[in-house]
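Changelog note: in this version the structure field was regenerated for every chain. One regenerated record is shown below for reference.
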Amino acid sequence: VQLQAYGGGSVQAGDSLRLSCAASGRTFSSNAVGWFRQATGKERELVATIGWNGRNIYVRDSVKGRFTISRDNAKNTVYLQMNSLKPEDTAVYYCAGSTSRISIHITTYAYWGQGTQVTVSS
């Protein structure tokens, strides 16, 4: 099982990025998928999750209205559209697959991929 996050980069404040999370080795069409991030010196935090059917979406308050999570089960891919990026969004972003159909609890996310760096400069 492999999850690969990609699409990160270095941008200016106010710019947009679209992260993608592609799964291989198994399908995650029956599982929740989440995006997490970890800034240097800080704990990993949940950014957004999406239920198995594309509903039951959770987005943390600090990115609400700017970030959108979506999924395409036919492509076994989950996306994170990030608009109006701020310097405080700088972090390594990870995607992860849950063992549950719907979950906002990090403990249920058992399948992790390598992260992608997002750097936002002011």
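Spot check on this record: The mean pLDDT is 94. The first strand starts at residue 2 and ends at 6.
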